Amino acid sequence: MQTNTQDFLKWLKTQIPLLEHLGIEQLGWDGQTLTVPTPLAPNVNDKGTGFGGSQAAIATVAGWCLTTLCLKERGLECDVVIADSHLQYLKPVTTDFETRVTLPDLSAADALAERVEERGKGKLELVVEVLCQEQVCMRLEGVYVAIKR
């Protein structure tokens, strides 16, 4: 069951009000990769480049969304949190950008769902990248934890 991303984004903005200010208007989701196209203008810093805090927030939310969508599509309602993250700012973001996160492999979501069903919680390690002109500008390595409701 593929989730309607516009409905999901509308709901998400009611849960995380900060997203209303970041200019995110759509999500791309194919069951394995989530993309978040984002305009630079509302996320600019005093140097005219992408604000690191915006990049960190969007990357954190992208991983959260992927984890949540994978579980929802497997019939599981869970509380998802980021338990650990490491950020690397590699290049300045100078134009509109895209945040992308992909499941490590196709079986990762099924394994997560099985762990949640068996133990009531599970974790998923993800790499989220912020891309500007197809170059990786920021990378978040994070551990997301899902707890069955």
Describe the structure concisely for a colleague.
By secondary structure, the protein is of the alpha+beta class. 30% of the residues lie in helices and 35% in strands.
Structure explained in plain terms:
This protein has helices at 5-15, 52-72, 108-119, and strands at 28-29, 33-38, 78-89, 97-102, 121-132, 135-148. The chain is α+β, with helices and mostly antiparallel strands and 149 residues long. The chain has one domain (5-148): Hotdog Thioesterase (Thiol Ester Dehydrase, Chain A, Roll), CATH 3.10.129.10. A hairpin with a 3-residue loop joins strand 1 and strand 2 (33-38). The mean pLDDT is 96.
Q: What's the helix and strand layout?
A:
Layout: H1 5-15, E1 28-29, E2 33-38, H2 52-72, E3 78-89, E4 97-102, H3 108-119, E5 121-132, E6 135-148
Q: How many strands, which pairing sense, and closed or not: the largest β-sheet?
A: 6 strands, antiparallel
CATH superfamily grouping = Hotdog Thioesterase
Note the gap between the termini: 20 Å
Rg computed from alpha carbons, rounded to a whole number of angstroms? 15 Å
N-to-C order of helices and strands: HEEHEEHEE
Total strands: the figure is 6
Structural class of the helix and strand makeup? alpha+beta
What is the CATH class?
A: Alpha Beta
CATH topology: Thiol Ester Dehydrase, Chain A
For the record, the CATH architecture stands as Roll
Ranges with pLDDT <50 over ≥5 residues? Answer: none
Oligomer: single chain
Strand content: 25-35%
Supply the number of helical segments: 3
Protein name: Thioesterase domain-containing protein, putative
InterPro entries: HotDog_dom_sf, YiiD_C
Domain Thioesterase putative: 7-147
